[in-house]
Amino acid sequence: MSDSQFSSLSSSSYDGSASPSPAAPPPDVVGNGSSGDANRSRQLITSQVSRHWRDVFWMGVFMLHLVLVGVALAVLGFNRFREKDRLKIDRFTNMFLENQPGLTEDFWPLYAVAGTVGTVLAWAWLLLLGSSANSMMKFSVHILTTYLAVISVLCFWQKQFFWGVAFAVGAVLQFLYVISVIDRLPFTMLVLQRGVKMVWSLPEVVGVSCAFMLVMLSWLVLWSFGVAGVVALSIGDGGRWWLLVVSWQVFCVSLFWTGAVLCNIIHVIVSGMVFLVLINGGRQAASMPPKPVMRSLRYAVTTSFGSICYGSLFTAAIRTLRWKIRGVRSKIGKNECLLCCVDFLFHLVETLVRFFNKYAYVQIAVYGKNFNRSARDAWELFQSTGVEALIAYDCSGAVILMGTLVGGLVAGTCAGIWTRIKHPDRVMMVGSTSLLMGMILVGLATVVVESAVTSIYICYAEDPVLIQRWDAEFFNKMSEMLHQRLQHRSARATQVLTSRFDSQMQETAAV
C-alpha cells in the first residue's frame, strides 16, 4: 500500500469539511448497493442466522480426545485413591516403572494450590482491569526476566541442572526480546489501553471470562486427580523420565489444547461483541441485535466450534515462534550467514502465519467462515491495506503472554514450594504441571483484552471510520504510526535494491 493510497484511505478523517464516507464492507456481509451502519448491521445479523457447521472433523477429534483422556485420568486417579492398586493395573506398569506405595490424595492437594493461586491471580487481573491493567502489563514485561532468573538459580541450588539451564535460557531469551522491542512498547501500551477501554465498556464479556474460568476449574479437578495418580505411581529413577514423557506428551498437551479452546471461545465471543459495538456506533445503539453475547456464545459453541478446536492446536505456538524470530532478526546486524538462516525460518513462519493467526477468530466470529479461510482472508486484508506493517510493529500479544507466563510461574512456584516440603523428589513434576495450570487460568482472564485488540485491528483494516467514530484521538495516532511504518518499509526496500544493484555492478566491473 503506497503513501498516496493510505492518504486516500484515511482522508475523510482529516478533512473536516467533508462528511466521512465509510469504506465498502466485505461482500460476505453486505450485498451490493447497501450502505450505512444500520444496513450493515442488519445484513450481518442475517448472514449469521444462515451459518453452516465448519471444521466438523476437528470438533469430533477434540470431543473424542476429551472422552478418552477423561476416562484415562479417572482410571489412573482412582487406581490409587485411598488404596494402592485399587483397579489392579499396576501389573501392566511393573515392567516400566518402580511402583511405589504413593496415593492420589498425597499429591492432589498440591495441584489444588496451583488451581487456587491461578484463580486468585486471574480474578485479581479482572478486578484491576479498569484501573491498573496498564501498570500490571508494564510490570509483567519487566518482572518476567527476573523471575525466570531466580527460578533458574533455585533449580541449580536443588541440583536440577536440566531445569536450571532451561529457565536460564528462558531468562536470556526474554531479556533479549525485551531489548529488541523496547522502542515499540509505547505504541504497544497505547493499543492495550484502548483494548482495556473497550473491554471495560462491555462488562458482560468479563462475566463470560469468569464463567469459562469455572468450566476450566471443573476440568482441572479431574485432570489434577488423574495426574496425581500418575505421580503417585512411581518415583524411581528408572520410571521418572517415563512419567515425565507421559505427563507432558499426553496429559499436558491435552490440557493445553483444552485451555486454548476455552480461551479461543472467549476470543470469538468478545470479537463478535466488539465488532457489533463498533459497527453500530455504541453498546446502546438502537441497531444492536438483542442479546448479542448469547448470540456470539451460541455460534462459538456450535457452528464455529470445530474451527476453534482446529486453530487452537497451532496458533499459539506459531505466534510465539514468530515473536522470537522477529526479535532475533532485528538484532543480527551484518552477519550474512546467520541472517540467511534466520531469514529462512522467518519466511517459513510467515507462511504458517497466513494459515494460523489469531485474527482468524474475528473472521470466524463475524462471518462464520472455516478457520483456514478466515486466517487467509484476515492476512490478505491486512496486506492489501498495509495494516500488516502496523501489526508487525505492535507487541501487545507478546506483552499479554508475558503476564500469563508470570501468573503461571507464580502458581507453579507456590505448588513447588509446598511439594518441596512434602515430597522433595517430586518438585519438578508437580511444579511444571502446576505452571501450565496457572497459565491457562490467567490466560482465560487476559484473553478478553487480546480479543479486543485483534478486533480493533480488523475493524481498522476493513473500515477506518469505525475506529475514528469510536476514538478519534486513537485513530489519528494509529494512522500516523501506520504512515511511519509504511515509509520505513519503503525506505528499507529501496536500500536493499540499491545494495543489490551496487553489488551486481561491482561484480560486472570485476569481470
TrEMBL record:
It is a multi-pass membrane protein. It is found in: Cell membrane; Membrane. Residues 1-21 have a biased composition (Low complexity). Pfam families: Choline_transpo. The chain crosses the membrane at residues 56-78, 108-129, 141-159, 165-185, 205-235, 255-279, 299-318, 390-415. GO terms for biological process: transmembrane transport. Residues 1-39 are annotated as: Disordered. GO terms for molecular function: transmembrane transporter activity. Belongs to the CTL (choline transporter-like) family. Choline transporter. PANTHER family: CHOLINE TRANSPORTER-LIKE (SLC FAMILY 44), PROTEIN PNS1. This is Choline transporter-like protein. It comes from Nicotiana tabacum.
